[in-house]
């Protein structure tokens, strides 16, 4: 994109051009910090995101939840700012901010207007180098995280099932641990653990920035260089080289918990987007459960009325190989083994017969439309660029739709045969019970 | 995520659009011959179009004993028209990758549609069919009833939902606002087909509807498209309806026993209508108390200082004819009492001591500054425009807003805190393992 066009687009009367990710600019600072910039003048917002290449994947047994805990403590101030002042400063300037942690990354983000975004840039640079993690807020924040775990997992039967199933799906790979951490581990984490984690992973060469929205590239790049350029490069963080051994035989997990509706979850080992199979896997999940006309929905929800909802989820945007999850929430008073039997037969069908041309065309249309809809928010656009960057490289985002378009019925049949193998799956079942007072 | 983000519509409506955002919004309004109000905002960046249709057809129109009718009607809209079966509708939508959904709240039924620009004609055709030619096949009714009943059961899995339901029930006894939108298992089962058709005939009328369309389409194109597609949609004959305002219930302390690890707490009382003259001062006050995320007083004292909760939030939620004030939070069973005590203490402090000039300035700049940034998707713009119309705020609302917020003084905040925060009226609901919570 030329700067002339960019400036023109910010004027009030110009019609903003669609911002294609192909127009993303990549700049790497001397300290190794990669900066990805995409101008998009659709709304007056700029989203500024710092992506650290660290998540629960980088943790060890007994210390689960460390990355997420550190994310919380990053809001407790630096030499220059007080506890929670980060959020207050952003809000006072009309912005919104937050953070999230996954298995692979920890991401901090702020959305502000063009004239204020420099504030977020300075604050993020400051806490990349100078976070004060050992204040009196360590103990209260630990309690907050334990409350978060109670809210999200302990008292949420569906999440609890996903957690325990994940812990069996993987035997050695760190994806077996929950991002938030096991309750006992959270309780045992120390200030020193946090400091060590911060020193090891929070460095410009282990991070990248994604900035999308209403800004001028040279202007914002100058601001970024001034704020982040002086932070020294850190030693290369340790690499995680754990490979999950191939699964040989189905595994089962039963969770009995206070709940109303039974839930079934089937995890199948699949590759990430590094594999060309990931395009066909995306379409396969769409054929199975994309919309009300999909196969699982039609059979289980519509015709047989055995399930309240069904899902088939796959995102290849993970650093290591991941899972394709098929799930169903069973209708009250219906038998979950009957639901499992039908899921099984539908999955066998896609492994033995090619899907029709119309179904493939429909799935491709759904994926393409969702791709366009996904560009509607600057936050969503930045998030997508970031996830491609952690998986392979952001440039691969551009080959997504062409890759989808090339998939044939034979490809879908082949990947279904290869990956939806009953011997390579883990089935989790939630059995609702009424817990009695002790 | 670091915090649970709860976005209430009033936030969207409460805040201003500065000139630049407004210019980009370029909202246009027309009233069609049949009474339908059309609002558009041309957003050409992507080849997509988003529809948001509001209908005055919410659960407040349900009769006592007939709860769930409004919701079931909305759910069934996409399950059969004169021209298409439910299966054909699903197949048509999925084949073009469009998202169509219908929902229902106390006041409104909502239909949302997002599609690629190239599929606009088929989208309009489907919308028109749904609005004028729904047939409510018996088989689909039975199916949807089962789905709704499953959903009612499923919600009992969520202690937060239970607390919310009990709170509304206590706050608005003998009113549709106090009853669940979905109805109860018994009331849903008993709904006859005839009632669905009647409800549809009576309430799904263009003169009860607001349509916002945002995306790769102009106002003129939409007018032409609607004239053609919606020509069969005719206004109703009902006059202006007078609905009784619900009366708030007495203060109460409600305990629900459930074997869970956290107490799910809702504390609150009646609030104000959206059109109330003190609405803006109350929004500013409410933000300081517990609406302002990490900047709020409740967040500071309950989460940051004491580590009692992950999420604590308060809001004055305003509908057209009713308003609610509520604080929601979750804390381990054993600290429920402490969290309730601190909440009450913060309410007292705000009423008695008011706010500092600095706090007030920070809120004002947040409210005025953050809004244009929230309008960053077609769906959000469409939701904003349709609700702006529903609440009769006027197209110049965006111009008036800075003054409305700017005029709020420290004295106003103290005054509205004293008047609209009413410790003696509080209804407290605690869903918890009561033995462990050991509430006095």
Question: Your description of this structure?
Answer:
Chain A is an alpha+beta fold. Chain A folds into two domains: 3-228, 2-Layer Sandwich (Cytochrome Bc1 Complex, Chain A, domain 1); 251-433, 2-Layer Sandwich (Cytochrome Bc1 Complex, Chain A, domain 1), CATH 3.30.830.10. Chain A has 16 helices and eleven strands. In chain A, the strands form two sheets. A six-stranded mixed sheet of chain A has the order 1-2-6-3-5-4, with helices on both faces. A five-stranded mixed sheet of chain A has the order 7-11-8-10-9, sandwiched between helices. In chain A, a hairpin with a 4-residue loop joins strand 4 (96-101) and strand 5. Chain A is globular, with a radius of gyration of 23 Å. Chain A starts with a helix and ends in a 5-residue tail after the last strand. Chain B has helices at residues 9-14, 19-25, 69-76, 86-95, 120-132, 138-155, 159-171, 185-189, 193-203, 219-229, 279-291, 297-305, 336-353, 357-374, 378-390, 397-406, 410-420, 434-437; strands at residues 28-31, 37-42, 48-55, 99-104, 109-116, 209-215, 252-257, 262-270, 312-318, 323-332, 427-432. With 440 residues, chain B is an alpha+beta fold. Chain B starts with 8 loop residues before the first helix and ends with a helix. In chain B, helix 3 (69-76) packs across helix 9, helix 11 packs across helix 17 and helix 12 runs antiparallel to helix 13 (336-353). In chain B, the strands form two sheets. In chain B, strands 1-2-6-3-5-4 form a six-stranded mixed sheet, with helices on both faces. Chain B has a five-stranded mixed sheet with strand order 7-11-8-10-9, sandwiched between helices. Chain B contains 18 helices and eleven strands. Classes of the chains: A alpha+beta (438), B alpha+beta (440).
Order of helices and strands of chain B: HHEEEHHEEHHHHHEHEEHHEEHHHHHEH
CATH superfamily of the largest domain in chain A: Metalloenzyme, LuxS/M16 peptidase-like
Low-confidence stretches of chain A: 1-18
User: What is the CATH-assigned architecture of the largest domain in chain A?
Assistant: 2-Layer Sandwich
Largest interface: A-B, 83 and 80 residues
Number of domains of chain A: 2
Radius of gyration of chain B: 23 Å
Amino-to-carboxy terminus distance of chain B: 34 Å
Structural class of chain A: alpha+beta
In DSSP terms, counting alpha (H) and pi (I) runs of 4 or more, how many helices of chain A? 16
Q: How much of the residues of chain A is beta strand, in percent?
A: 15-25%
CATH topology of the largest domain in chain B: Cytochrome Bc1 Complex, Chain A, domain 1
The average pLDDT score of chain A comes to: 93
> Percent of residues of chain A in helical segments?
40-55%
CATH architecture of the largest domain in chain B: 2-Layer Sandwich
Q: Runs of chain B with pLDDT <50, length 5+? A: 1-23
CATH topology of the largest domain in chain A: Cytochrome Bc1 Complex, Chain A, domain 1
Instruction: Give the CATH H-level superfamily of the largest domain in chain B.
Output: Metalloenzyme, LuxS/M16 peptidase-like
């Amino acid at each position: 994109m030329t700067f002339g066009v960019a400036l023109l687009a910010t004027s009030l009367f110009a019609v903003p051009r669609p911002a294609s990710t192909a127009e993303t600019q990549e700049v790497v600072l001397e300290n190794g910090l990669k900066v990805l910039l995409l101008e998009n003048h659709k709304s007056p917002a700029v989203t500024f995101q710092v992506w650290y290449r660290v998540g629960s994947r980088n943790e060890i047994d007994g210390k689960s939840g460390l990355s997420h805990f550190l994310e919380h403590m990053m809001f407790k101030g630096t030499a220059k700012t007080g506890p929670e002042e980060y959020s207050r400063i952003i809000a006072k300037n009309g912005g919104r901010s937050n953070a999230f942690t996954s298995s692979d990354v920890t991401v901090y983000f702020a959305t502000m207007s063009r004239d204020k975004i420099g504030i977020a840039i300075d604050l993020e640079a400051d806490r990349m180098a100078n976070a004060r993690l050992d204040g009196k807020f360590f103990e209260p924040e630990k309690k907050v995280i334990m409350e978060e775990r109670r809210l999200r997992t302990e008292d949420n039967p569906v999440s609890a099932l996903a957690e325990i199933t994940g812990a069996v799906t993987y035997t050695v790979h760190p994806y077996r641990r929950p991002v938030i951490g096991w309750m006992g581990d959270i309780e045992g984490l120390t200030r020193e653990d946090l400091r060590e984690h911060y020193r090891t992973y929070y460095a410009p060469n282990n991070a990248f920035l994604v900035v999308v929205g209403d800004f001028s590239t040279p202007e914002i790049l100058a601001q970024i260089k001034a704020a982040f350029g002086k932070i020294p490069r850190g030693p290369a963080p340790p690499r995680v080289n754990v490979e999950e051994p191939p699964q040989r035989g189905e595994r089962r997990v039963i969770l009995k918990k206070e709940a109303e509706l039974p839930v079934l979850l089937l995890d199948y080992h699949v590759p990430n987007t590094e594999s060309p199979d990931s395009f066909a896997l995306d379409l396969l999940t769409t054929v199975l459960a994309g919309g009300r006309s999909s196969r699982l929905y039609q059979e289980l929800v519509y015709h047989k009325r055995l399930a309240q909802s069904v899902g088939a989820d796959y995102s290849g945007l993970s650093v290591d190989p991941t899972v394709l999850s098929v799930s169903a929430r069973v209708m009250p008073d219906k038998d979950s083994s009957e639901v499992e039997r039908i899921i099984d037969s539908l999955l066998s069908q896609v492994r033995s017969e090619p899907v029709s041309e119309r179904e493939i065309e429909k799935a491709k249309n759904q994926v393409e439309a969702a791709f366009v809809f996904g560009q509607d928010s600057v936050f969503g656009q930045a998030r997508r660029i970031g996830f491609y960057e952690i998986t392979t490289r952001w440039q691969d985002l551009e080959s997504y739709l062409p890759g989808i378009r090339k998939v044939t019925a034979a490809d879908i049949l082949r990947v279904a045969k290869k990956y939806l193998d009953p011997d390579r799956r883990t089935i989790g079942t939630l059995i609702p019970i009424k817990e009695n007072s002790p | 995520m670091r915090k649970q983000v709860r976005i209430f519509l009033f936030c969207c409506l409460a805040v201003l659009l500065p000139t630049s955002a407004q210019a980009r919004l370029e909202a246009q309004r027309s009233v069609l011959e049949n009474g339908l109000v059309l609002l558009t905002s041309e957003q050409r960046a992507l080849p997509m179009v988003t529809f948001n249709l509001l209908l005055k057809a919410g659960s407040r129109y349900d009769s006592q004993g007939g709860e769930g009718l409004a919701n079931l009607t909305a759910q069934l809209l996409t399950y059969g028209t004169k021209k298409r079966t439910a299966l054909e509708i699903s197949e048509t939508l999925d084949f073009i990758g469009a998202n169509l959904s219908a929902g229902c709240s106390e006041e409104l039924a909502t239909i949302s549609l997002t599609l690629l620009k190239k599929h606009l004609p088929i989208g309009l055709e489907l919308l028109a069919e749904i609005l004028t030619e729904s047939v409510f096949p018996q088989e689909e009714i039975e199916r949807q009833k089962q789905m709704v009943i499953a959903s009612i059961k499923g919600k009992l899995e969520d202690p937060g939902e239970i607390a919310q339901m009990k709170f509304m029930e206590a706050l608005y006894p003998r009113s549709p606002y106090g009853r669940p939108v979905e109805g109860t298992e018994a009331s849903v089962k008993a709904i006859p087909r005839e009632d669905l058709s009647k409800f549809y005939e009576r309430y799904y009328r263009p003169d009860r509807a607001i349509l916002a369309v945002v995306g790769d389409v102009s106002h003129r194109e939409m007018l032409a498209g609607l004239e053609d597609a919606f020509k069969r949609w005719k206004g109703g004959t009902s006059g202006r309806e007078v609905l009784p305002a619900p009366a708030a219930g007495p203060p109460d302390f409600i305990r629900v026993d459930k074997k869970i690890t956290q107490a799910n707490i809702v504390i609150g009382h009646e609030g104000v209508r959206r059109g109330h003259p003190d609405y803006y001062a109350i929004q500013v006050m409410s933000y300081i108390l517990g609406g302002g995320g990490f900047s709020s007083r409740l967040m500071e004292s309950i989460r940051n200082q004491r580590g009692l909760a992950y999420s604590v939030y308060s809001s004055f939620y305003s509908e057209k004819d009713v308003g609610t004030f509520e604080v929601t939070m979750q804390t381990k069973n054993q600290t429920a009492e402490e969290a309730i005590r601190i909440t009450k203490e913060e309410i007292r402090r705000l009423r008695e001591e008011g706010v500092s000039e600095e706090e007030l300035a920070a809120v004002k700049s947040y409210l005025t500054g953050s809004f244009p940034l929230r309008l960053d998707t077609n769906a959000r713009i469409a939701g904003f425009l349709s609700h702006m119309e529903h609440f009769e705020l006027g197209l110049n609302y965006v111009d008036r807003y800075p003054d409305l917020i700017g005029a709020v003084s420290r004295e106003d905040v103290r005054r509205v805190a004293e008047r609209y925060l009413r410790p003696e009226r509080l209804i407290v609901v605690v869903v918890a393992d009561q033995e462990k919570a050991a509430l006095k």
